Amino acid sequence: MISNTKLILLIILFTLAQRPIETASNRSFPASFKFGIATSAHQIEGAWNEDGKGENIWDHICHTNPDYIDNGDNADLACDSYHKYKEDVAMLKDLGVNYYRFSLSWSRIIPLGIAGSPVNPAGIVYYQNLLQELIDNDIEPLVTIYCWDLPETVEEYGGFPNPEFEEHFAYYVRVVFQNFGHLVKYWITFNEPLESCYQGYGTGTMAPGYSHSGLTDYKCAHNIIKAHAKAYHVYDEEFRTQQQGSVGIVLDTSWYEPATGGAADVEASERALQFAFGWYMHPIAFGNYPPVMVERIDQRSEQQGFNTSRLPKFTEDEIEYIKGTYDFLAINTYTTVYAQAREEYDIDVISWDSDMNVDMFLDDSWEETGSSWLRVVPWGIRKLLNWLSKTYNNPEIFITENGVSDKDGLQDDQRINFFREYLSNVLDAVLDDGVNVTRYTAWSLMDNFEWQRGFSEKFGLYHVDFEDPERSRTPKASAEYYAQVIATRCLVDVCD
Ligand SMILES: *[C@@H]1O[C@H](CO)[C@@H](O)[C@H](O)[C@H]1NC(C)=O
Ligand SMILES: *[C@@H]1O[C@H](CO)[C@@H](O)[C@H](O)[C@H]1NC(C)=O
Ligand SMILES: *[C@@H]1O[C@H](CO)[C@@H](O)[C@H](O)[C@H]1NC(C)=O
């Protein structure tokens, strides 16, 4: 007879054996594969009003509505990287990264942001110093021109939904290419416009905090896509011959796994990918919005009594102008969500979600993290990479963000496992599936201002002490692991 303790032990062992344990590949990353790490200006710089910097929409919302952010946090000082950039570069050097992805603060460079307004010399000097420091340390810069910190004046002029936005952005990118183009080979125009538009103007969960989904988020996206294309052509026509760089845009999506193998759920998964990712990538790759968006939004708009579709139209000239404006495909991705078919939303509901018409949910068995939306699902990244490769004709792909928020402090074993398992799936996609991924960028160099979550969500490989006025930085265990992966190009102790 088995004693109770033995029985319990057997059940535990059985449960452990049942848990699908992923095993990281022991193959090596190709010699040409590059590893980097990312941050963004507003999340780390601080110095929000120093040396002539103008106010941006996140300064504004934090100062005028502190309840908007967890614990009333703001990014006035953040990680103080405006003063500590040399220390940041020393950390990058310790990690051994091939490149650093960071962003420029528009309102530090052009305080008012609007076309024709004055340039701030101190802002130019700051980024020239940072770029030079990187180059002196053999770290390639991968520069994001815009990451979420719109100058407040541009917002007050109507922000992204105003068609004039394109002119303000074109003015800004010329200043950027003129002043930094000799030091930079890889440019990203916008970071995650899905979030700027859907959360900024659709759900109100990001600055400027408007909630008109299905309306201004579509206008926002329309103008960002046109501004991106304009920036690409400005580079092409005025700078590329001399500067010899590449230009792309960073888009984000989760992998949407069909809830079942049934045709309706498979279609729901494809529809979710098209509404989240295709919304931006389809025009940039093929000239216009995904057919499923055009069809559904045109039809629902008509049924709702609008005299024209809520999804703006590109002219034939614009379609030609936008098509093909990318030198690489760049993706930020963190997790997987189940996508399931559902009954049509009530026709009175006007939103991106009801236009898409997909139910989404997480699997309770997926490992939780420090973020409610982020579960550890390593196989999802391989499926997403295959979908991207197939849908966009095998482009060169940069993973420009991937990472996890921790609850562990300095011994962040969950993050080490996350990187090992996700990178193993990236490697399988490259070596077994023929997906042309050439770069992997960890998010993020250090704990920082995580937008509405303030300093409560910690994505850093370096811990930052936000109680310390010096904002002292300490490597977590994952920093050592990532440095080892970069040095050996191997995820486990020994590779073949
Ligand atoms: C819809 O109504 C607006 C406002 O009256 C008008 O300017 C526009 O031309 C109309 N569009 C169509 C397609 O009828
Ligand atoms: C990946 O893309 C790069 C840049 O376009 C190209 O040089 C390389 O040949 C591609 N590799 C594969 C395996 O397709
Ligand atoms: C790598 O993994 C393969 C298959 O799992 C195994 O046969 C091989 O011995 C491993 N190589 C090393 C160096 O551990």
From TrEMBL:
The keyword Glycoprotein applies. GO terms for biological process: carbohydrate metabolic process. InterPro entries: GH, GH_1_N_CS, Glyco_hydro_1, Glyco_hydro_1_AS. Pfam families: Glyco_hydro_1. Keywords: Glycoprotein, Glycosidase, Hydrolase, Signal. GO terms for molecular function: beta-glucosidase activity. Homodimer. Belongs to the glycosyl hydrolase 1 family. PANTHER family: GLYCOSYL HYDROLASE, LP05116P. This is beta-glucosidase. It comes from Zophobas morio. The lineage of its organism: Eukaryota, Metazoa, Ecdysozoa, Arthropoda, Hexapoda.
